[in-house]
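Recap from last week: sequence in, structure out.
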Amino acid sequence: MTAPPLDRKAALLAMLAEIELDLDYDAIDTSGFEPDLQGWGDQDPIFDYVIRHFHPVVILELGSWKGASAIRMAELLRDYNIPGLVLCIDTWLGSNESLWRVAENRRMLRLRNGYPDMFGQFVRNIQHSGHQQRIRHLPMTTGCAAGLLAAYNIVPDAIYIDAGHDEAEVAADIAGFWSLLKPGGIMFGDDYTTQWPGTVRAVNRFVADQGLKLMGTEVKWLVRKPEA
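Predicted structure tokens:
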């Protein structure tokens, strides 16, 4: 039997404390950063749909960039009076090659001494949003995070996938995190569009293999894990 939602949230917070990631965001020095909530699709109605209908308490976000989608989910948790937590899983190093090849995109990485400085921007945005108690971070690859969360028996209610966009990356993220998701939980993601055909192929193959019903909006996809 899956533990009650608040127990599962407590387990996640305990894990973060044990691995020394129970940080006070307000104590992190983000001088030199101004709020910048540039993102992609954070106002899509799918976020309201998931949180309003399914009341997730433990949400995993794979790929967080500057935190716009995480902040949107935190706002909805507040608005619907849900005591939930969004765990942002990202390396903050850039999730696809276009962020490095295209000069305009590369500037968004805030390279300093040859290394991206995106995490500081993420934290500054969390500070600005006022959702320091609703958002936490896990700074690692999605593959590493899946193994870590499994080792600590973390069971999320919802998982939002927006990290890598190649077919193999998306397929690995879906497969790696599906086993963690609670029965009846929601997995959804971004970039289900012709611009990212690898994402479309990975999602379609998984849905077909599992016999799931695919839902979504114009560019977002969503499936629900069977109860049994």
